[in-house]
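Good morning C.,

I know you're traveling, so I'll keep this short. The sequence:
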Amino acid sequence: MNTNTHDITLTVNGTERELSVEPQTLLVHALREELGYTGPKVGCESSLCGACTVHVDGKPVKSCTLLAVRADGTEITTVEGLDDDSDGLHPLQEAFQEEHGLQCGYCTPGMLMTAASLLEETPNPSRKEIRESIEGNLCRCTGYQNIVNAVESAAEKMAKQEAGD
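The tokens, ready to paste straight into the viewer:
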């Protein structure tokens, strides 16, 4: 082992991955550059934009603010692993497409991961709750209205799936 690197193990989207990282490597860079998960975007690198949001042990985390060595042993879900059934798109992804909740797409992975966390905790959120949950994610294209519509639509889709419709 190189004395300037640390060996870590991350379980990303259900697959255990081992890698060596320098102590100052941010999780977003480890995911993108070392492991090839390009869903999390590098935007501001100061937790302002939310484009890098992933789930770490089930909680949304801006991966540009977490050192990879601090994530050792955790379970990480990126937008690539959002639909764990592998049968197509997650209801959020479908709704973003149907409701035109994306334009350039840069913020979309972070928006999806943040919204997924909201819907896990609050299956039927109000529009105000949706807006509050995504306020840490910046979008320069959409004006947010269609994003809120998409999250609302996804909540309805997921409720129908739960009910077996």
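Safe travels,
E.
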